[in-house]
Design a protein that fits this description.
Strand content: 25-35%
Largest sheet: 6 strands, antiparallel
Helix content: 25-40%
Structural class: alpha+beta
Radius of gyration: 21 Å
Strand order of the largest sheet: 6-7-8-5-9-12
Number of strands: 12
Order of helices and strands: EEEEHEEEEHHEEEEHHHH
Amino acid sequence: TVSSATYIPESCTWDMTLNDRTISAKLLVAADGTNSLVRKLQNIPLGFKNFDQSAIVCNVHISGQHFDIAYERFFNAGVLAMLPFGKRRLKCIWTTPDARKDELLAMQDEEFLKCLQQAMGFRLGSMLRVEDRKSFPITYAYADNVYGQSAVLIGNAANTLHPVAAQGFNLGMRDAITLAEVLRSARLIGAPINAVQTLQNYAALRAADHQTSRELSNNLVEIFADNKPVTRVLRSFGLVSAQFIPGIKTKIINAGLGAWM
């Protein structure tokens, strides 16, 4: 836990207290989530939107096999994702309006499993047991700038996305990989890793991916929340096409891997 972090202009370094020890660093990489302390210390403005939704997260044991396949179902009120998390066990991420969150959390396990089974169907067999039900607010947030004084933001500290497209983790991984490459290149030419030009290079390389990933996630939220008959038909046609037309599926997979960069 970061107890304090102070920037020292004379040496262009950070002095930080982590629990009971103090360290000094030339570059502070903020991977500390949506409520990033580092971003607040840098006074970097944050664009923010509350979806009035929460994610119910839990572990679910099933009678069937998942074959290491992740499943996602889309509803007008949210998204249900089931992610492999061990043999005959999955991580359930169920987004729901805040008005229903407390109801789902207060249910007895048997009642919750019944609702989950109804929503998911029987493709994974029967839902046998649920563990560790928790809820997290769903927000959309992005930093106006991804770097400051000897500091750089990655992952949710820079961009927090709606989980509808499951792109938050992928985006954070690409942030980390790109940052590592930029810092390595700086070292090879003898440039300081905390130089403004170094951090600007990172920001420029990530700008397009950040923008496109944010737009993809936000557009999908709007598409699946729209209950107009025409939208429902087009939405169903799009999902079926993505499943059975190889070219479309490949493009969607490549987009999820950041191939638009």
